[in-house]
Prior knowledge:
Helices cover 0% and strands 46% of the residues. By secondary structure, the protein is an all-beta fold. The chain has a single domain, classed as Rieske [2Fe-2S] iron-sulphur domain (Rieske Iron-sulfur Protein, 3-layer Sandwich), CATH 2.102.10.10.
Amino acid sequence: MGTFVEVAKENDLGEGEGKTVQANGKAIALYKKGGAFYALDNTCLHAGGPLGEGTLDGELVTCPLHGWQYHLKTGACETVPGMEVAVYKVKTENGKVFVEV
Length: 101
Ligand code: FES
């Protein structure tokens, strides 16, 4: 079990938006979809692109560098099946967003 670390305010992200946040020195891509928040490793498995700076298309996060795609909720790579990035539990409390690391 990790500990929940505050990474953002709920209002920092609009629907469908993402950003890169830091939690205990770890770079995490945080996305908001359907009013809920999702967190996955920020580092693309292709060449290290920042997934938090990517775009969300349905439930797929697209890396801003060369377009590899990852499932928002599972971290599974759509582009190269079998590869995946870690995903993290997220909770919100009093307008703040926390990620478990
Ligand atoms: S670094 Fe992400 S697709 Fe190349």
